[in-house]
């Protein structure tokens, strides 16, 4: 299996983060991953509101989020777990993620306090 690309925190660029979160579906997926606190799997994130996202589209969204440095993905057999890199990103670009998710009105429910205090 091909290894997954995860950029180092010092290689993250704000324009890549802005591009990745410019798509409302990706922003919603990222907000869910950030709110989960542990990991978001493809099957757990397949529903956004009333819309069901095809697995192939979800895979592409995860790839864009991963390559922008927003998530870290790990394979466990056939399951792919996705973890938010919010705290790392906030150290590099303070307030960026909070500002973007606030603009969408998509703050992660369980992470509001964490994002606001970082």
Automatic annotation (TrEMBL):
Domain HTH arsR-type: residue ranges: 16-98
A molecular function (GO) term: DNA-binding transcription factor activity
InterPro entries in alphabetical order: ArsR-like_HTH, HTH_ArsR_DNA-bd_dom, WH-like_DNA-bd_sf, WH_DNA-bd_sf
TM spans (from-to): none
Pfam families given in the database record: HTH_20
Domain of life the protein comes from: Bacteria
Protein name per its UniProtKB record: ArsR family transcriptional regulator
Species the sequence originates in: Rhizobium deserti
